[in-house]
Amino acid sequence: MIKNSFSQIYTYKNTKLFGLMPNNKAVSQYTLTNKNGMECSVINYGATITAIKIPTANGEKTDVVLGFDTLEDYINSFDLPSAPYLGTAIGRYAGRINNASFTLNGEKVQLTKNHKSHQIHGGLEGFSRKFWEVTSINEDINPSITLEYTSLANEENFPGELNIKVTYTLTENNELKVTFQAKSSEDTVINLTQHSYFNLDGHAKDIASQKLFINAKNILETTTELIPTGNYTELKNHTFDFSSPKNCPISIDNTFVLEGKEAATLYSENTKIKMTVFTNQPGVHIYVGGNCFGQIKGKENADYHPTSAICFETQNFPDAPNHSHFPNSVLRKDEEYLHQTTFKFEKLQP
C-alpha cells in the first residue's frame, strides 16, 4: 500500500504524467495490472478510466473502452456538440433532473442548467471535469486505487458539502470493482455512476453485432426530452426487451429497472470476451454512442462514431428527486452513500 498526504507526490511505479490542467495542476495516469495481465488505467481528471485491456491470444491485449490519448482531448471533449463523458465519474447527480430543480425538506432547490432547461450529469462542470486527489494505491493482490473529491456546499447549487471517494479494484478474477462512498454535511441528493463506453471487439470498432442481455422487465417512460414521466413501460414485446441476448441497439438512451444484482451482459463473438455487470443500484441507464463528430480523435487515432460503444450507467433513476415513488435519492446528513458495481470479464472457449 502506498499512502501519502494530499500534498505529496506518488511514486507508484506504474504512473506517468498525463498532462497539465489550465490551472497547471499535474494530472497523472495510473495503471493497475493483475496476475493475469489484465490492465486498468485511470487518470485523476474526472476519476476517469482511460483503458481496460483484456489479454487475448499471442500475448496481445484488447482495449475494451473508449478514451483519448491526451488530457487536452478529454478537456476539449466537453465542448463537442454532445459531450461524451468518456470513462468519467458522474455526479453529483447522474442523468437528467427536470427543470434543474427539486424540493428537499420543503424548500425548492434550483440547480444550474446545462441541458436546455434541465440539468444532466451534475451540471456545468459536475465531477467529470474536476481534479481528484489520489489517496491510496494498493499494488498487491487485487490492486486498487482510491481517488477523492470534496464538492463544496452549493456547487452547481446542490446543498451540503459532499466528500466522495471512488475505488477501482482489479481482482485476480478479472473483475473491475467500482465502489463509490460519500458523506454530506447537510441533507442533499446524490446519484453517482461510472461512464465508461465498452466495446469488446476493441475501442476502434462498432458495437452493433455484440450480444446484449439486460435483467429488466420495465424501462422508465420518458418525455421527448428524455425526462422520466414517473411511469414505467413494460418490455414484453418491446424493441428494448433484452431479456434474451440479442444484438446491441444502434440508438438507445433509456433507464432499465433492474430485477436483481446481475444487471446485464455483453458478449463478442469475435473476441469471445464476455462482460457481466453486477450492481447494488436499482437501475442501469443504457446508452450507445461515443460520437466525437470528427473533431477529436480517439486513442490510437480512432474515429469514434454514434455506434462506437455502449455505456452501462448503473445508478438510481434519473429525476428521482421529483418522483416520491422512485427509489430514495436523498442522502441525509452524516449518513453514508455506498454504490458498488462490478464489471466481470471472461474469455469464453470457441
TrEMBL record:
It holds the Pfam family Aldose_epim. Its cofactor is Ca(2+). One of its GO terms (molecular function) is aldose 1-epimerase activity. Keywords: Calcium, Carbohydrate metabolism, Isomerase. Gene3D superfamilies: 2.70.98.10. The active site is at residues 195, 313. Pathway: Carbohydrate metabolism; hexose metabolism. Beta-D-galactose binds at residues 195-197, 253. InterPro entries: Aldose_1-epimerase, Aldose_1/G6P_1-epimerase, Gal_mutarotase_sf_dom, Galactose_mutarotase-like, GH-type_carb-bd. Its EC number is 5.1.3.3. The keyword Cytoplasm does not apply. PANTHER family: ALDOSE-1-EPIMERASE, GALACTOSE MUTAROTASE. This is Aldose 1-epimerase.
